User: Fold this.
Amino acid sequence: MSFPLRFLACVLLFAILPAAPLRAEPAAILATYAYTRYDRAAALQPLAEHLQRGLGRPVEVRVLESPRALAAALRDGTVDVAVTNTFVYLGLRDLPAIRAAAVFDVPPATLDAYRGVLLARRDGPAASLPAVQAGAAQLRYAQVIPGSTSGGLVQDLFLASRGLDAARFATILQAGTHEAALAAVVDGSADLAALADAPWQARQREGKAGDLVELWRSPPIPPGPLVCRAGGRIDCARAAQLLARLHEDAPAALAAVVAAWSEAAGATRLIPVQAAPYDALTAVFADAAAGRAALDKLL
Assistant:
């Protein structure tokens, strides 16, 4: 066969062979944790699309069942970018791979309102902190969901600073929402309740607070930052740049996320993370090592 014919045969052969499939670039994972009131998968989708354009690779949304599950996924590298809560960040911020990318710039009124409270019935067995410490083994303790910052973890951290491990309570009830945790202590199905300050303030405004006593109120809780896991599927520096400009380049994506996090209410941009507001939450421990150990146990 002459050279031209051999060349033509080769061209035809390659033309009819099936093309080898291209290996798709693995998707980066943008994740958070579920909360009953919000459709967080829908809330994160516009942000995922914006990050996908800016990073030049696929970005998928995952909503995990709890803050603890989100913390575990960040530790093991199955999540690349996450909208955390405060305690997930506190528990992970010392890990070398975890980079704080940005946080909601919330108005002072929102920040001041985001606190946790510990409530009990005035006529019940947990009407004072000494009573709680002495009788924990007989007390029913209502929280919101496992890993809720203002509805469990901030209170548990405070109790730990007083030498009381939440595991000592007779029962820990997961109410599902802050309002349900409040209802549990009001109707007597719980002796003690951990919840956000807002429902408690609303009950006081309604003049219905006389049957309850506030045992403790936290300092303002900064919102959980967006974090990135270095060494994974994306460039964390580039992700931080995209988040810093989100209010300009994709304001609808920012608004969708803000709408699904009550602690971010009123935020119009994302800003760099400062350590001091988070450090204030562990200041209840005189010993920093004890505070670190308590955080590790809670998460």
